Amino acid sequence: MPSLVCTSCGNKFYREQLSPFDGELLCPSCLSNQTVYCSCCDRRIWTDDNVGTDAQPLCQDCFDDHFERCTTCNALIRRGDTFFRGDEPYCQDCYHSVCDRDAIHDYYYKPTPIFYGDDNRFFGVELEIDGAGEDSDNAAEILHIANAEQPMAYCKHDGSLDEGFEIVTHPMTLDFHLHGMPWERIVEEAKKLGYTSHQAGTCGLHVHVNRTAFGNTESAQDAAIARVLFFFEKFWDELLKFSRRTQGQLNQWAARYGYKDQPKEILDHAKSGRHAGRYTAVNLTNADTVEFRMFRGTLKHNTLIATLELLDCIIDAAIYLTDDDLKAMSWSSFMLGCTKPELIQYLKERRLYINEPIESEGEV
Prior knowledge:
Layout (H helix, E strand, L loop, with lengths): L2 E3 L6 E3 L4 E3 L2 E3 L1 H7 E3 L6 E3 L13 H7 E3 L6 E3 L4 E3 L2 E3 L1 H8 L4 E2 L17 E7 L6 H11 L6 E4 L8 E5 L4 H6 L3 H10 L11 E7 L7 H17 L1 H8 L3 H7 L9 H10 L9 E2 L5 E8 L4 H20 L2 H6 L2 H6 L4 H9 L15
Parallel strand pairs: 11-13
Antiparallel strand pairs: 1-2, 3-4, 5-6, 7-8, 9-10, 12-14, 12-15, 13-14, 15-17, 16-17
Helix pairs in contact: 4-6, 7-10, 7-11, 11-14
């Protein structure tokens, strides 16, 4: 039987022992040592052309289409698991390590949440401030107050702002926001540095609440969240006044789903995706939280606290009332259950509290 030469090692082999590859004839040893299969497309490539790793070999096309390498540690990362800082790709660990050195983090920065307080209902606040620069020194001054005792907040870039950033808290119970988070000093420092929030016209006050606060099972959560959506539609005019937003601002940043006769019908519509996505008054697109986006930003301490207290009352109503109870409830009867002093004061300021308006300081 005639023999042929392996074009790599030069040894002779029977024809059936050699494998053609990329214009070469390779013996079993050379084929094994000098080529690999791309782990993505399963195409054989030269080992020297492997742009992946020994454990996860990749051809150039698959790498270009589906992978990145971390700018810091050079780890191979799937595109969907990549964190970008500008145009630079990072693995999760390196991304957070790089971001942790900055007072104002990238928009995608999301540290592991730290939960503060002893209840099962947590509020994560995103307060946007504007007008005095996206300035790391200013952010550091604010964080020096917020994190003096423990890491309770961080700052992030927000592309919707002109010259500012957003202050983001870790999840906290309402009681912790009231007594553990130094909000009054934070908003005063922001004003001292030249920032506004309400007056800027660009800022929102967004609040995330953990989904598990609405019930122990998915069905219980859905039922309560459906009643939250119904509450917002039923009392849209009152909440619009409370929010200090204009209808035009809400259409852009926090649109309504539209009134329907049954809470579940609104929830089904919200889940259908035939709406403004996350830019809704009650955003349900996050896996672990419900985000309330309706409220205008503020550097007035009482207004900020009153907003959290209102949401707490709405969630209570959604959990403890039936659909029929909620449909029969008036705004006035809902107000009677709101007993927190900050909330009552703000409701009176906005002329939303049983015809008892009071004079108030202007928003900042």
